[in-house]
Amino acid sequence: MDRRQFLEAVAGISSMVPALALLPAIEPGAFAASLHARAQAAGRLRTLSEAQDATLETIAEILLPQTDTVGARAVAVNRFIDLLLSESMLEADRDRFLEGLAAIDARSQSLYGAAFVAARRVDQEALIGALDGQLPVNPLTTAERAALERQPITAETGYATLKQLVVFAYFTSEPVAKGLIHSPVIPGRYDGCAHT
C-alpha cells in the first residue's frame, strides 16, 4: 500500500471518525499509533460484545491472513476497532457499524444456517468473497456516501465500512508499517527545496 492508497482509506473513514477529519494529512499515523498502544494495553472490550468481537476478528483474518507476513489477528485489529468505536466514532456511525456486523451474521445464518463464526471456513470465505465483489470500484463521492447513510444497513454496506476500518487498523499497526511497507508509523519531517 502506498501513501496515496493509505490516505484514500483514511479519507473513507474520516467522516465516521471526527478526530481523523481534523488532522493534517500526515498525522493519521500519530493518531493510529496512540490508539494501537492503548488498544494493546486495554484489558477488556468496551463496545463490542464477545460474539461481535469474534465475528470481526474472523473477518479481519480472512481479509488479512497470517502468511509469511503478520496477519490481522496478530496485530489485534479487532481491539483497535473496539477502542475506535468506543472513543472516536460518532454514536450514529458506531450504531451503523454494529448493525452492519449483525447484517453479515444474519446473511450467514440465512445462507448457511449458522452464525458467521460458527459457519464452515469455506462458507465464511465465500460470503466475504461475495460481499467484497459488491464493493464499488471507485471511491464514493460525498453525495453518494450521504445517500448511502440514509439507506437501511445491509450486509454489503456493513462490510464496506468494516473493511475500511480493518485496512486502516492493519496498515497503521507498527509491525506492518515497519516490517511490511517499510515506512515509519509517524513519517519524518519534510524539507522542501533545500538551497545549497
List the helices and strands and how they pair.
Elements: H1 3-14, H2 18-21, H3 28-41, H4 50-63, H5 77-87, H6 91-112, H7 121-133, H8 142-149, H9 155-171, H10 174-179
Helix pairs in contact: 1-9, 3-5, 4-5, 5-9, 6-9
Structure description:
The protein has one domain. The chain contains 10 helices and no strands. It has helices at residues 3-14, 18-21, 28-41, 50-63, 77-87, 91-112, 121-133, 142-149, 155-171, 174-179. The two termini are 34 Å apart.
What is the compact description of this entry?
By secondary structure, the protein is mainly alpha-helical. It contains 10 helices and no strands. Helix 6 packs across helix 9.
Task: Label this structure with key terms.
10 helices; 196 residues; disordered N terminus
Order of helices and strands: HHHHHHHHHH
Judged by helices, strands and strand pairing, the structural class is mainly alpha
The whole-number mean of residue pLDDT values reads 81
Give the tally of structural domains: 1
Q: Which outline best applies?
A: globular
Radius of gyration: 17 Å
Query: What portion of residues is helical?
Result: 55-70%
- Span between termini: 34 Å
Number of strands: 0
Low-confidence stretches: 1-5, 18-26
Number of helical regions:
10
Sheet having the most strands: none
Strand percentage: under 5%
